[in-house]
Structure formats: structure tokens, C-alpha cells
């Protein structure tokens, strides 16, 4: 009996100590992360915590001491190099982080809020010189957590969700420039590490930006933005987004521009699971209107669906690594290395397949809409171990490696208009094949021999 009572007491003591053990475990994990962040240029300037029996809250303030080191850290998770000029914007930035969690491990998700508190000294000095009142307004906006990311992170399954705090701000600078920014209902969710998630999706209900001074103005309006991404690896991913409405206007510059886009959708993917890598991209626009002083045109049902396949993995990885380097295309040597890598990649062979490039209707200068065009095309570049040498000697030596098969269907009315704009199209008179209200052109280029609708061009 005594042993049973003792066992129960020990069990109760273990249960009672779980919050303390859990808090120690989580604190150790956070402290390890702080040491890692310091190695990437972030110094902890404040660390305060309040802990009860079941819950703990912890407040941090970080100063970015080494912006270049921090950018190098971020670039590990991006296939695009962050511009070097961002250094000056980030050096010395003060960021606040609030963490709330249960002392019972995995009982509930972490609550994390991240918000900038103070601008970099470089930016602060610029604002103080140009407009002291705007500097004070900006500082007060940040101190009131005007920009805030709220994240709920589940340690058990790495799921997270959160939002960006709504923003509705307007201000008039001392030079009478009026600024307005509206961000409404920006939410996100995903799975995996926050800086390198396996899955990520986001939604933004409204985004408005207005900048105006007198008769001059610039306006951007996005409605119902959605995006989603799945990352299996650096070279196997799928990402897509769509926007219900995009409006861009520029006025008072002598050439006013208005752009309106309905249902803009795009997706991109990379698949490196097989022996080679394949890239796919698809873009569509339901309706587009463009107007300026020089021209007005509209497009209906624009589609562009393209794939690049047969990319050798080793050469493709080398090429993407060169592109991601911060000095890519900025020095003669880096430019030369990038060009050489691209040719080596092509020397293994590649296929470019345009499954759909089309516009259903088109109008120009407020004319009645006319039927557009459709293009399907496949270009093959066969493998050639001597391609690098041929290109360096003369690019024309690579022409026999190319084969092309394309079909263009264009409305007769559009083709007639294009002939009036570009007289070179008259050279193809007699090659047309009629099909109802359309002309069809089947272009083939095989073994250096070209033909349109079976008629030789050589």
C-alpha cells in the first residue's frame, strides 16, 4: 500500500514539474537560436521575461549590427540575390519580438509578434534632414507597432499561421506630397521553418498605394491577391498566385498611363525528380486595358504556357548557383563565367515547348475588337559536346543543332493590320493557308531547311 502511495506521489510530482521542465527546455531552445542569430549579425539589446506556472512571455529587442552578414544569411533561403543597397537601409535597425508560449511542451502553438521599432541611423538621418516632422511621424508609427507580423507556430507538426496587421495611413510631406497606404486582411499559413517553409499560402484583401503632388499622381491598387507554394527542394517546387484586379495609374507627367488588369494568374514549377530538370511557367489575363497619350489597346483572354525540359541537373545547378551570387553580371569575369555556364548547359541538349501563346480578342485606339492569334511551338537543341567551342568560334556553327516546329493561327483582319504596320510581312504573301476567318502558318526548320506550309524558304 505504501509503495502504491509512493508511486502516486512520485507521478504527481513529475506531472507538477512538467511546466518547469518544459519552460527550461523551451528557454534553452530559444537561447540556442539567439546565439545563432548573433552569428548572423543580430545583437540582443533587450531580453525580458515574465513567467507563471503555466505560461511564459518573453520580449526581445534586436539591433542589426552587421547587415551584410545578415543578408548573406537570408540569401541561403532565396534563389534571388538581395540587392547590396539594402545594407544601408538595414544597418542599425531595431526590431522587437514578443514570444508567448505554454510551459507544457507542445500544449499549444507559440505566439510570436515581430515589429520594427526604429529605422536605421542612415535612413533616420536622411529623414531628419529632409523632413523632421515626417521623421517624427514615422518613428511614432513604428513605436506604436504600425508594422507587425503575428505568427502562431506549432512545434509538434511545424504548422504555422498568422497575419500582417492592417495598415491605414496617410501623410502630407512638407513639399505637399501626399502619401497614402492601405493594407487590409493580409493572412498567411504554412508548414516548415519560417524562413524556408515547405508549404506557404497567403491572401491579401486590399492593397492601395497613392503618391500625389499637385496634378501629379501615382496610384496602385490590388484586390484579392492569393498565392501558394510547395517546396520539396531548391529545384523541385510549385508556386502560383492570382489577383482579381490590378489598377495602376500615372498622371500629370505629360504622358498619363492607365493600366487595368482583371484576373491575373500565374504559376511556375520546377521538377528535378527524374534524370533531368524541367521548368514550367503559365500566365493568363482575363482582360487588360492600357491607355496613354500615344495609344490605347485592350486584350481579352491572354495566355502564355511554356516549358523548358531536358536540362542536365549538374550543369543547371551550377548555372543557378552562379546567378544567385551577389556579383552576377556585375563584373566582366562573372559575366563571362555565367555565359560559359549557360552554353555548357545548352550543350547537353534542351527542349523549349510553347504549348499556348494566344490572345482571343484585341482592339487598338478604341476600335472594334478583332479576333487575335494562337501559337504553338517546339524548339529542340540537340546535345553537342563541341558547342562551347562552336559558339566561341561563330554562333552560326550551332545552327545545325536547332530544329523548330511552329503553328501560327492569326485572324485575317489582324494579319492585314500587321502587314500595314510592318512591310516585311509582305514577303510571306503566297505562303498563307486559309482556314475560315484565319490564316494558318506551319513553320518548320529541320536540318537547316526552312519551310512554311510545306513551301521551302531556302
- Secondary structure: number of strands: 21
Radius of gyration: 29 Å
The mean pLDDT is: 82
Strand content: over 45%
What general outline do the C-alpha atoms trace?
A: globular
Give a written overview of the molecule.
The structure is a single chain. It is globular, with a radius of gyration of 29 Å. Helices cover 26% and strands 49% of the residues. The chain has 458 residues and is of the alpha+beta class. Helix 4 (121-130) packs across helix 5 (132-143) and helix 6 (313-324) packs antiparallel against helix 7. The protein has a 21-stranded antiparallel β-sheet that branches.
Concise overview:
By secondary structure, the chain is α+β, with helices and mostly antiparallel strands.
Set out the fold topology:
Elements (H helix, E strand, L loop, with lengths): L1 H38 L2 E10 L3 E10 L2 H9 L10 H5 L3 E9 L7 E9 L2 H10 L1 H12 L5 E5 L5 E6 L2 E6 L5 E15 L4 E17 L2 E18 L2 E16 L5 E15 L4 E16 L4 E17 H12 L7 H15 L3 E15 L5 E12 L5 H7 L8 E10 H10 L11 E3 L2 E9 L2 E4 L2 E2 L2
Antiparallel strand pairs: 1-2, 2-3, 3-4, 4-5, 5-6, 6-8, 7-8, 8-9, 9-10, 10-11, 11-12, 12-13, 13-14, 14-15, 15-16, 16-17, 17-19, 18-19, 19-20, 20-21
Helix pairs in contact: 4-5, 6-7
Keywords, separated by commas or semicolons:
single chain; about 450 residues; alpha+beta; 21-stranded antiparallel beta sheet; 9 helices; about 25% helix; about 50% strand; globular; disordered N terminus
Amino acid at each position: 500500500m505504501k509503495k502504491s502511495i509512493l508511486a502516486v506521489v512520485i507521478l504527481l510530482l513529475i506531472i507538477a514539474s512538467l511546466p518547469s521542465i518544459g519552460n527550461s527546455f523551451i528557454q534553452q531552445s530559444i537561447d540556442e537560436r539567439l546565439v545563432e542569430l548573433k552569428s548572423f549579425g543580430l545583437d540582443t539589446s533587450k531580453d525580458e521575461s515574465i513567467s507563471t506556472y503555466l505560461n511564459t512571455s518573453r520580449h526581445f529587442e534586436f539591433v542589426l549590427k552587421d547587415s551584410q552578414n545578415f543578408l548573406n544569411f537570408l540569401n541561403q533561403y532565396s534563389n534571388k540575390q538581395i540587392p547590396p543597397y539594402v545594407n544601408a537601409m538595414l544597418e542599425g535597425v531595431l526590431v522587437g519580438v514578443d514570444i508567448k508560449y505554454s510551459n507544457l511542451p507542445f500544449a499549444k502553438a507559440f505566439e510570436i509578434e515581430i515589429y520594427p521599432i526604429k529605422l536605421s541611423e542612415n535612413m533616420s538621418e536622411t529623414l531628419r534632414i529632409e523632413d523632421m516632422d515626417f521623421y517624427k511621424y514615422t518613428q511614432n508609427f513604428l513605436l506604436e507597432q504600425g508594422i507587425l507580423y503575428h505568427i502562431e507556430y506549432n512545434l509538434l507538426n511545424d504548422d504555422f499561421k498568422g497575419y500582417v496587421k492592417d495598415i491605414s495611413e496617410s501623410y502630407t510631406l512638407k513639399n505637399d506630397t501626399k502619401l497614402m497606404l492601405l493594407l487590409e486582411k493580409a493572412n498567411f499559413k504554412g508548414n516548415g521553418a519560417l524562413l524556408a517553409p515547405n508549404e506557404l499560402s497567403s491572401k491579401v484583401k486590399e492593397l492601395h498605394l497613392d503618391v500625389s503632388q499637385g496634378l501629379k499622381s501615382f496610384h496602385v491598387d490590388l484586390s484579392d491577391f492569393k498565392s501558394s507554394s510547395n517546396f520539396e527542394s531548391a529545384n523541385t517546387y510549385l508556386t502560383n498566385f492570382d489577383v482579381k484586379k490590378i489598377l495602376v495609374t500615372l498622371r500629370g507627367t505629360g504622358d498619363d498611363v492607365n493600366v487595368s488588369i482583371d484576373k491575373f494568374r500565374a504559376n511556375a514549377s520546377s521538377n528535378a525528380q527524374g534524370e533531368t530538370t524541367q521548368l514550367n511557367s503559365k500566365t493568363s489575363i482575363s482582360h487588360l486595358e492600357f491607355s496613354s497619350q500615344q495609344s490605347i489597346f485592350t486584350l481579352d483572354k491572354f495566355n502564355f504556357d511554356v516549358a523548358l525540359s531536358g536540362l542536365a541537373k549538374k550543369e543547371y545547378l551550377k548555372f543557378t548557383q552562379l546567378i544567385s551570387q551577389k556579383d552576377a553580371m556585375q563584373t566582366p569575369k562573372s559575366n563571362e563565367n555565367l555565359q560559359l555556364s549557360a552554353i555548357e548547359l545548352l550543350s547537353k541538349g534542351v527542349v523549349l515547348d510553347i504549348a499556348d501563346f494566344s490572345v482571343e480578342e484585341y482592339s487598338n485606339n478604341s476600335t472594334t475588337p478583332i479576333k487575335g492569334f494562337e501559337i504553338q511551338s517546339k524548339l529542340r537543341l540537340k546535345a553537342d559536346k563541341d558547342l562551347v567551342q562552336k559558339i566561341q568560334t561563330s554562333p552560326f556553327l550551332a545552327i545545325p543543332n536547332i530544329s523548330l516546329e511552329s503553328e501560327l493561327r492569326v485572324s485575317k483582319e489582324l494579319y492585314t493590320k500587321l502587314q500595314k504596320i510592318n512591310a516585311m510581312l509582305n514577303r510571306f504573301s503566297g505562303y498563307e493557308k486559309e482556314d475560315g476567318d484565319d490564316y494558318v502558318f506551319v513553320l518548320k526548320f529541320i536540318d537547316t531547311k526552312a519551310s512554311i506550309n510545306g513551301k521551302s524558304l531556302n
